[in-house]
Design goal:
The chain has a single domain, classed as GMP Synthetase, Chain A, domain 3, CATH 3.30.300. The chain is an alpha+beta fold and about 110 residues long. α1 packs antiparallel against α3. It contains 3 helices and 3 strands. Helices cover about 40% and strands about 30% of the residues. It has a 3-stranded mixed sheet with strand order 1-2-3.
Length: about 110
C-alpha cells in the first residue's frame, strides 16, 4: 500500500551524513568535522572541514592530501548513494592533526 506525500531530508541530516563519512576516512570523531551545504546550479555542494588522525596516516601510509582526496571520493560515491542527492562540488579542508599514539608490541 502506498500513501501520497513526499519525503523531506533536512539540511542537518544531510550534513551529519556527509560529516560521518568524512570522519570515518580521516580517523576522527564525526563531531570534529564541520559541514556546510549550498546549492550549486541545482546540485548540492558540500564543504567539509576537520582534522586528520596521525594514526590513520601511519596505518594507510598516505599523505594528508591523499587522505583528504579519499574523504572527497567517499562523499561523492557513498554520500550520493545514501542520501539520494545529486552532488555538485565536494571540498575538504584539513584544519589540523589529531595526534594518535601508536603502541608498539614488545
Amino acid at each position: 500500500m502506498t500513501f501520497p506525500g513526499r519525503v523531506v531530508i533536512t539540511e542537518r541530516a544531510l550534513g551529519r551524513t556527509f560529516g560521518a563519512l568524512a570522519a570515518d576516512v580521516l580517523g576522527v570523531e564525526a563531531r570534529s568535522v564541520q559541514t556546510r551545504l549550498h546549492d550549486s546550479s541545482g546540485r548540492l555542494a558540500v564543504e567539509l572541514e576537520g582534522p586528520v588522525s596521525t594514526g590513520t596516516l601511519e596505518q594507510t601510509g598516505t599523505t594528508v592530501v591523499g587522505c583528504a582526496d579519499s574523504a572527497v571520493a567517499r562523499i561523492k560515491d557513498d554520500g550520493s548513494r545514501l542520501t539520494g542527492t545529486a552532488l555538485g562540488p565536494v571540498r575538504m579542508r584539513i584544519s589540523g592533526a589529531q595526534i594518535t599514539e601508536t603502541r608498539r608490541a614488545t
